[in-house]
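Lecture notes, unit on protein representations.

Consider one protein chain, 500 amino acids long.
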Amino acid sequence: MAAAALLLASLSGVDAFWRMDCHSPLGIARIDPLVNYGEIAAHSHIIFGGDNFSPTAGYDDLIASESTSCRAKEDKSAYWTPSFHFKHSDGTIEVVGNQGGMLAYYFLRDGGTGKEIKAFPAGFKMIAGDTNKRNYTGPVPTPPQSTWGPDLLTQASLAERALGFNCLDYANPIPEGSLTRHFLPDKSFLDANCKDGIRLELAFPACWNEAAGVAPKGYKSHVAYPDLVQDGVCPDGFSTRLPGLFYETIWRTQDFVGKDGEFVISNGDPTGYGYHGDFISGWEVETLQSAVDTCTNLNGELESCPVFTLQTQPEMAAVKLTMPGDLKNENCAGPESALPGNVAIQSGPQPATENHAGAAAPTYAASSYAAPSYAVSSKPVVSTPAVSAKLPAYSKPSYAGSFSIQDIHAAGVASTSSIATSEASSTSAAVYVAVTPAPSAPVESDGGSIIGTTTYTSDGAVWEVAIKEIDITVTAEPTGAARRRRHLAQHRHVGDRHGL
């Protein structure tokens, strides 16, 4: 295990992480003490954390919370994102069911610098994402990290790639990786492919400019992304490394299969580009620093950290928001004739106008926005009839000995000795091979090189993935061999997932 841990750290910069399970929301309400302090917020949010959350909540309020909807009693932080809704063809709108609350990952990554990771200081607040954004400026699909040039390393570009919309199908042997799709798929794609819903993902900046303070106006200028979004080197002026915060929230889009309409985020965004999240630390600094320093397991399990006092799921579910009087009668769940706050649905590509509470909401047809149509590389596009042949075990080079190599599965290409990827134009695609008849020789490798890594969770397990470029040879009778350069995803199980 020591050797495996060393290899994993060298490949991905992951020294440790834990998953803070916030199994049940405090509630869904138009409350946002960062953007709309002391007021009714412009749009609704799903909220987790300390029970003292309110339109005026700050660090001292959260620390004084009697309880939290998150699993570790020591974590009184506030975590919130926009809620997720479905607009029916008759114009009525209702909230989509949430599956299992949310997970807040704390990644302890130093970008290979060896620098100390510091706990969030008292009073620390930040926002990730831009509620008014309705376009994407980067290449689709995203190139491998090893090829990112200056245009992809700006903070604006990195922030675009800090959003993820993960299509969930637990029967798929190769799930989509985290942060691989940066837009909300349209309903037809969700109905056909995402049998277990969609997971909305958000990575927060992990580099801090201490001189800028803990909560400057706008709650963004004091932090920055490292140059690989979740890992890598911090930019000049942002030298303090913080835990890498990462939100996952699952929504039950499968409940709306066959129903006519569109999905939309509560800020009026049907594209996903305007997804965002907020965070106010509710940790005692010494407690969080102790966890950062001592909870260095690779499995992500809270049970592995003696710093935390853990709650049961019923205890978390019992913690609810004290709703302000002027919001007690608001029905954010619906069905209603408009989004909470009467927010306008705006599909862009120009930035959305500010959505102020009470503003008249214009109507938009469901067809006003068309999601980009590309396939994320880690999930094959399967044609009918699908080819189900599996290749023999891959011959691993010595440095990858601690990995268990995932089988390569057919992607439905019927021709003999053919190499297919789920996105032909993508240089980051995993390899899928369809062979008729079955191959008579194993896949061979020239060793290749690691070109990128990622972490994802699937069906109760956490995997660390190394993407490696290799030459492969497939021999099939009677047509001989085909040789192509492609990328292979190597998966290593690093822990089990809780609460979902």
